[in-house]
Amino acid sequence: MDLGIKGRTALVCAASKGLGRGCAEALAEAGVDLILNARGAEALEATAAALRAAHGVRVTTVAADITAEAGRAAVLDAAGAVDILVTNAGGPPPGLWSDWSRDDFIKALDANMLTPIALMQVLLPGMIAQGWGRVVNITSGSVKAPIPQLGLSNAARTGLTGFVAGTARQVAPHGVTINNLLPGIHDTDRAQALDGNVMKAEGITMEEARARRAATIPARRYGTAAEFGAACAFLCSRHAGFIVGQNILVDGGAINATI
Ligand code: NAP
Q1: Whose CA is nearest to atom 12 of ligand 1?
Q2: pLDDT, tens digit, 9 for 90 and up, residues 140-181
């Protein structure tokens, strides 16, 4: 399918690895020029070089912390006006509900709620002015079904989800869509870190931790960044203009719900 976005420009945050990279790759394949961000310059440059070579698109890189004001300013400065925004950042650390301090909550809110909101506030006006735009926020299945050890993620991402629900309906009249993509478990560094915690806590091997988790998913496997990226690229395509304010699970059926 021709996604109809060749020649458009996208800012993809936190995109040197994992799900962000998957989204960047799928957009590049559709002919979209990219501004890519991550903190570590080495992996970021390697990803940018791979995407340029594979897809012939323009890729600008900004090595910066997207959750910090200065980092965001540098990224937005390099990006200028964009047609497509994919928000993403690292997820908060796991722990117990009783352990987190106010500072822990502020950090999680900054990274997984206030950063995507700040990016939208800067970039939506340009999209509205040109009558076309796409925003996809990478959130988590935890907004549909809470993950006990990820209370910081449950809380912060639900705040973003509420903001998107209201805002998406206000920008839709201008040809701009905002949707959230909710990953279940995917085969990335983040998943390995979470499995590593289970391995230590339960005294089992990494393979056992992974097999146990995979067994809880109807698809009986982890998702791939490429699959996730394809879903993102579709939401950014010209075909997805009537999909507004939705929260779309990409989780192999892991969340057991009728709707
Ligand atoms: P990942 O494999 O750890 O990749 C994270 C990417 O984001 C890297 O490129 C990393 O590069 C960059 N990054 C992290 N923090 C950043 C920051 N503050 N500023 C700029 N770049 C940053 O993670 P992932 O699995 O793709 O997960 C992406 C998001 O989806 C996370 O929020 C995660 O919690 C959520 N999620 C993932 C899963 C899963 O199964 N993978 C499931 C549910 C939700 P640098 O470290 O160099 O900055």
Answers
A1: 14
A2: 999 999 999 999 999 999 999 999 999 999 999 999 999 999
